[in-house]
């Protein structure tokens, strides 16, 4: 129905679901062509000619075959109603633009609705080095001011640009305002909480490959506990799902023999935060944006998420964990509200200790300590020397002093 509307009445359409990839040869109004992505997955890349695009990813065609056609991108948190798209009279002009723009705000949604599309255009980013990359800059407010679904000042510089750079999108290629493009490449947008397991897996593979370059592998069992009290959040959400007895939880988990407890907090740089999750055997924490960093975890990492009993609690992180083949369990905190702080009952803390201990015990004996690693290196060196001596009849070669 949407495609018929687009082709026959030439008004506007909403880009929907995964039907894009089932029409790789489709050519419609506005000079739009659809291509299946390089890995043959169902997602597709739309190619527009001579269009304007705003910072939220909505496209207005200026092509002669569909002057004025409008294409609305999917995503969360639409502030404006569908209608006539308005653009400034003067727009920056670019030859080629790859759009990751979408209607999102915040940490999780940037990963799940914008960055998740980077693997679709990974080859294109390399083959078109001069192409600009359009990214939605999350709305921000000054620290301490209350505003619904807006991020603290500095979010763009501290989070969005660094993670783009990590994934191979240099900051000098990034634009975030409305523009005009001669050629626009639009990887399939992701609807709000509509991520596919394949999309998550492709981003997970790319992200872990980039993190591994600068991160040492773990040498001991590591339990990561998320501390939401350190968040640089807006006033309205600063206390939401903060565990008031967080230190009691950390103390209890620290009693598990053979494991170290590492607290995750926003005082770390983005790369440090990703490294914490990259090395985790276990992640424990309340429902919240930090769980988006599960994208850096290894397969079979154990995840324990605390849900609230009242208010909205989407199961997006369960979906993320299962998509990445992580071990997931959730617990409901009695009387807890989505927008308020919460205290974990003693029996829930004890339950957390027991389920975490049951998961890590089989692994502890398999994680080498630094001493064991050194022992292993020494043994290998001894074995190499023994083989060398054996090849020379048990006689050591004389040292060459350069004479």
Estimate the mean pLDDT confidence: 77
Computed over alpha carbons, the radius of gyration is 25 Å
Largest sheet: 10 strands, mixed
Helix-strand makeup class: alpha/beta
Shape: elongated
Unreliable residue stretches: 1-34, 36-40, 141-148, 369-384, 390-403
The H/E string reads HEEEEEEEHHEEEHEEHEHEHEEHEHH
Number of helices: 10
Give a short overview:
Helices cover 28% and strands 22% of the residues. Strands 1, 2, 3, 4, 5, 6, 7, 8, 11 and 12 form a ten-stranded mixed β-sheet that branches. α5 crosses α8 and α6 packs parallel to α9.
SSE map:
Elements: H1 2-9, E1 12-14, E2 27-28, E3 32-36, E4 44-53, E5 59-61, E6 70-72, E7 92-99, H2 107-113, H3 122-127, E8 132-134, E9 140-141, E10 151-152, H4 155-166, E11 174-175, E12 179-187, H5 197-211, E13 221-226, H6 246-253, E14 259-264, H7 270-278, E15 282-286, E16 302-310, H8 316-323, E17 327-337, H9 346-364, H10 370-391
Parallel strand pairs: 1-6, 7-8, 7-12, 8-11, 9-10, 13-14, 13-15, 15-16, 16-17
Antiparallel strand pairs: 2-3, 3-4, 4-5, 4-12, 5-6
Helix pairs in contact: 5-8, 6-9
Structure in words:
- The chain has 10 helices and 17 strands.
- It is α/β, with parallel strands linked by helices.
- Strands 1, 2, 3, 4, 5, 6, 7, 8, 11 and 12 form a 10-stranded mixed β-sheet that branches. A 5-stranded parallel β-sheet has the order 14-13-15-16-17, sandwiched between helices.
- β4 and β5 (59-61) form a beta hairpin.
- It is elongated.
